[in-house]
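Hello,

Our lab assistant flagged a job as stuck in the queue for most of the afternoon. It eventually completed. Since we weren't sure the result was trustworthy after the delay, we are filing this so someone can double-check. Below is the sequence as submitted and the structure that was eventually returned. Let us know if re-running is recommended.
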Amino acid sequence: MFDRPRGSLPLLVLLFLIPQSLFVIGDYMAVGIRFPLFRFQAVYQSVNTTAGVETTLVPSMFTIVRELQFVFTGVVGSPLGKTAIATYIWLAGVIVLIAAAVLVISWQVLDNTEHARYPGPLIIATGVIFLVWALVQFGPLLYGPMGYTIPVGVPFLWYSGYQFMQAAKKAGE
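-- returned structure --
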């Protein structure tokens, strides 16, 4: 299926554009969507006005670099706290996904068939790492006092990794 560049490169772009998880923080204090390189989050905020107190939804976007800044400056608490550990795990998943992308580009664009067998397992590993992030951040049932998450992109990562492994077998690896 992905033995030609036209088939695998659009899929590679989709791996970075498809949301990996939907999440709710606390008792709907915030809701968000997490992509591999950033997260979009909307937080409920109370504002005092002349008519009284109004609650508005304030959207914001955080890149993985900004999240690491939050960890190292102490905004999220201890650099070894649960949220910080979850951020490190997410960063590891992003690094593995970028490595898989580089290998796919090498395989498809530069026609380097030596790298054909590595992207599939790396993409599957990325899905596992993103699932571990969800387990660390929200608990073993993906639900807890922190809120809950639905890892919508993980099955897509696993399926894509499997397809890349099948393409590598077809290519003679």
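-- support follow-up --
The delay was a queue issue, not a problem with the job. The result is valid. The longest helix spans residues 82-108. The beta strands are 21-25, 30-34, 38-49, 52-63, 143-144, 147-150.
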